Amino acid sequence: MSWLRNVLLGSIRARLLVLLLGGLGTLMLALFVLLDYSIDRQIFGRLDQTLLARARGVVVLLEAHPRDDAWQELHELSPEYATGGHTDFLQIWDARGRTLLSSASNTARNLAPPPAAVPANAPLFYDLRLPDGHRGRAVGLRFALPGSIDDATLVVAEEREQIDQLERHVHLALVSGVIGMGLLAALLSILAVRSGLRPLFAFADRARRRDDDGPDVEPLPADELPRELRPFALTLNAAFARLQAAVGRERRFARDVAHELRTPLAETRMAVELAGGTPPSPVLRDALGSIDRMQRCIDGLLALSRYEAGMDQAQMEPLELVELLRRALALASGTAAKRRVSLVSELPDECWIVSDPALLERIVDNLLINAAEYAPSGAVVQVELASRADGWTVRIGNPAPGLSAEDLARLGERFWRKSAAREASQHGGLGLALSVTLAELLGLTLRFSLAEGVLWAALGPLRPVVLPEAAGS
Predict the structure, then answer these.
(1) Buried-exposed string 130-153: b where 16+ CB fall within 10 A, e elsewhere
(2) pLDDT tens per residue, range 358-370
(3) From its phi and psi, is residue 378 left (phi > 0), alpha (psi between -120 and 50) or beta?
(4) Which residues span the membrane (predicted)?
(5) What is the domain partition of the chain in residue ranges?
């Protein structure tokens, strides 16, 4: 039952529906029981009152007249006891249980006597099987029979099958009404909960759109929301404002620092090149390498700031992916050759997709150079192009013996390196972070996985070009 508890605790809508339906169901069940009990009591109460009135009339007649005259007068006043029908029955026993009088409707059969002793001053009602086999209702009375010392017992019975049929019809009507009302109540509960929670869902949708639209979107209109949601809107507006201010400060700082460092860095590079001579000394050559690394870091910061701020947008157009990958392999071959790393590719003859050529090329270049730089010396970097149901996927794999599964979540973080020994790398520490940002801008996913010591970077899905069908086809 843990799933039921999770549903109830995890959804306000489910909790409200369960409470409403449970409460209404309990109320309707109680109403059904109460109505059924009241109607049954009224129906059988009237039957019992009719039987008691008849029995008392018979007692008055028997006590006021001699037995034979009373019996003849009873048949004249109530011919249903004398015609041999099967609706009304009557029988009298003495104190010893012997039958004194029996109506002709009994057809020489006896009525079932009362199941218990009849009180002296009160009637006894009970159900019985009539002589004709039908179900019946009877009342027993004790009375003083003229000419007898002991009291006699009178039983007046009547068929109850019509009453039972009426009761069944009433039960059917009640059950149908309760089921119909239950279904209507369930529908109204669903509509009420949906209508009641609609402002909450609209509020969540507004908050989601506000988060997706970037920092320049208008704040949530708290005054237009229900009173219960206004505190949430005000709190979210304040939190979004603080977050946007912090993000804005971070982006401005990174952009300003990058802009401020570009000019002195260019001047430093020029001074080192002028002082180096031909060929430059090893010390000056290392200084130029450090300057190049700083330049790549600054360029990466500027690119990240522009793309994250929405200043640069993707320009989607058809492009030939295989040619782009071959250019990227040629660019990375220099870095791979220095470290004796082999680049192996499995590519089709051609593959046309829709994407931004400049952004996609930059992602692939970063991934290939990163793989060639961090693969062990003498390793093999694999490049694959796989076709899937949702599009093409570029996969780049390089041996990464130093990485673990826990490190995959940190790939793409700015300036993160697995080992401090990599601080002297030619990378600025922003290649993968920039690749992740550009992939999101293109609507792609860049995933990292480890398989048998090989780090795989999968970029996709790349949407293929859909050519229009020929006019005659």
Answers:
(1) bbbeeebbbbbbbbebeeeeeebb
(2) 889 889 988 998 8
(3) left
(4) 12-35, 170-193
(5) 13-166, 230-308, 317-462
What would the pLDDT profile of 57-88 be if each residue is shown by its tens digit?
A: 888 877 766 666 666 666 666 666 666 555 78
| Phi/psi at 204 (5° precision) | -65, -40
Contact 385, 351 (CB under 8 A): yes
Q: How many CB atoms lie within 10 A of CB 340?
A: 11
Tell me which fold the domain 317-462 belongs to: Heat Shock Protein 90 (3.30.565)
The string of pLDDT tens digits covering residues 85-136 is 557 888 888 888 888 888 777 777 888 999 998 888 889 999 999 888 888 9
Cα dihedral sign, 392-398-403-404: positive
Q: What top-level class would CATH report for the domain 230-308?
A: mainly alpha
Q: Count Cα atoms within 13 angstroms, Cβ side, for 425.
A: 25
Q: What kind and span of H or E run contains 452? A: none
The fold of the 13-166 domain, in CATH, is Beta-Lactamase (3.30.450)
| Mean of pLDDT over the chain | 80
Task: Tell me the residue type at 282.
Answer: P
- Nearest-Å Rg of the Cα atoms of the chain is 48
Where are the extended beta strands (E) located within 232-348? 317-320, 342-346
At residue 391, does pLDDT exceed 80? yes
Output the pLDDT for position 132: 82
Instruction: From 363, 371, 358, 378, select the one nearest 403 (Cα to Cα).
Output: 371
DSSP string for residues in 400-438: -TT--GGGGGGTTSTT--S-GGGGGSSS-S-HHHHHHHH
